[in-house]
Design goal:
three-stranded parallel sheet, 14 helices, 2 domains, Rossmann fold
Amino acid sequence: MHRRNLLVILSAMVAWLFAGLAMAGPRAIVDDAGRKVELPETINRVMAAGPPASVLIYALAPEKMVGWVREPSAEEKTFIAPAYRDLPVHGRLTGKGNTANLEAVLAMKPDVIIDVGTIDDTYASLADRVQQQTGIPYVLIDGRFAKTAESLRKAGDIVGAKDQAEKLADYAEKAVSRLNGVIDAVPADKRARVYYGRGPEGLETGLAGSINMEILAIAGARNVAEAAGSGGLANVSLEQVLSWNPDVILALDPKFQKSVLADPQWSGVAAVRDKRVYRAPTVPFGWFDSPPGVNRVVGLAWLAKVLYPDVTNIDLGSDVRDFYKLFYHVDLTQAQIDTLLAHSAPPAK
């Protein structure tokens, strides 16, 4: 009787051991482009193909980053945890101005390359080509803002950071839910008509369907530049902006924010007349755009504050502090929070 029990236990242990060995080897996943990608057993070094992926990896598992797509500026570094400020710079594989070559990729010795953003045949073809030429797995993850929580969980599973991924995803879902509560309190015909001006002249903007304008739509506001058609970023004329007469102007460049409030040519615009011109903070990564990645989650609270100041009681400073701690691994000082919010939000009531 005892011998039989011992044999049963030994058989179970052998089965468990072989099952563990089978699971420990390389694993295959299907990325968001429908590509089957073989991943190594352990992932310790992760390379970002472009800026949105760089932000995601930094938020998720900074200790596994092989480097930055571009070197952070001196100002940006003050908002990045000291251990990661001076990582090597490897350039970008995707988008305009791609600067990374295959030699640079191989030199970094990543276990996996991750790209986050648009999913189409062009990016899938690039991923296949780099993967074939380097032998390094290359994963594409859908970067649409609506997919933020899903993309975080997916990336966390890939790189072995599930716990952190769940914290970040939960934060993002709650941020969206809170914003929806604010929007619901504002009648549709009272929601802001917004112009987003990029560059020192403020005459580059995002058209209908632009990934750069995603969180504006999520905030329930209307992008007045949709009148110029569909597409990505485009240059428009001052005459067009005057005809659209936005209620709010969001600026990316401090020069534009300052000049638009003093320029008589813009004085007829409602947003200028009412002094509702706000600059989206950009350090270490943009709150509204630049890049269009998970960094935009903090922009939801900011947009609620600048677009709907009469119906939101969000403590923006506290919210910013929490976000930077969780996503950027830094404890902000009050002076840093004040710097971020200067010229970026309406005065506290």
